[in-house]
TrEMBL record:
<protein>
    <submittedName>
        <fullName>Flp pilus assembly protein CpaB</fullName>
    </submittedName>
</protein>
Amino acid sequence: MTSQHIKIIAAVLLFFAALLGFGAWYAARAPKPAASAAPQTANQHHAVVVTVEALPAGVPITASQLKLVELPIRPEGSFAQVTEVVGRAPVVSLGVGVPLIDAQLATGLATQVEEGQRAVAVNVDEMIGVGNRIAPGDFVDVFFLLKRDDREIAGTQARLLLSRLRVLTYGPQSISQAASQPPDGAAGRRAEPIRTAVLAVPVDDVNELLVAQQAGHLMLALRNPADAAEPTAGRFAPPSPVRTPVAGQPPSREPLDRAAAGVALVGMAGSVATRSVVPPVAPVAPAVRPTGTAPSAATIEVIRAGKRSVE
C-alpha cells in the first residue's frame, strides 16, 4: 500500500469522526421532551358505585341505596353504573360508603331462581329429556307415570304433574352462563350422557315432584315459550297433606306452609276408576255324539268263517 492510499484512508476516517462529533453536538443541543402526563393521570377520577346506606346480606339491592362517586382509582371488580347492581344481593352485610365489588354480590344459579321458587334437580336421560333437545331457559311440562303395586297404588296411571317449569340447567349447560365451546378435538369424542336437569319449581310443588320421581317415572314435555296455558286453578282437589293443622287452626294457603304439610304417595295416586271385569267362563268340553248304544257289560266280538258274533 502506497503512502497515497494511506492518506486517502486517513481522510475518510477523519470525515466520519467529524460527522459523529457533529451528531453528538446536535443531540446535546436538542430540547428535552416535555414531562409525561403523570400529573394529568394523578388528577384523573373514575365513577364508582358506592352504598348510601347499610346493605343486609341476601336482600336485593335497590337504586335508592346506591350512588355514583368520583374516586382517584377504580377498585378491581367495581361498577360504573348503578343499573349494573340493582336487583343483585350481597353475600355479606355492607356498610355506608362502601364501593361495590362483584365478589361481594351473589352470582351463579341462585340469582336465576325467582321468589317463591326452588331449584330442584331431576334425573333425566335421552328419553325423559326429549331426545336431549332441551336447553336452559326452555319451559317444560312434567308428566309422571305410576304403576300398580296393589299397595299404595291401586292402578296404573299417568297424568300431568307440573306445568310450565323453567329449565335452569340441562347437563353441563346453565342459564346463568353461555354454553362453553367444546375443546379442540372434542367433536371426535363421544359426549358424556346427560343425567340431570335443574328446574325452577314452586316451593309448594316440590313435595309432589320428589314423591313422583322416587315412586314413579317422570317425563319432560318441551313446550313453546309463547304457550302460557296452564291447568285451571282449583279444578281438581289437591292431595291430602301428611300433617294437619293444630286444633282450631284453618288450613293455610301459604306456599311454605303447604310445603311443610307434606304429601303422601297414596294421596297423589288417588282413586282410579275401574270397570267391572267378568271372569272368563271356563271352556266347555265339546259333547261327543254316541255312535251307538253303549253296552251295559263287557262284550267280546268273535269272527268265525267270515261271520261276526258278540258273546
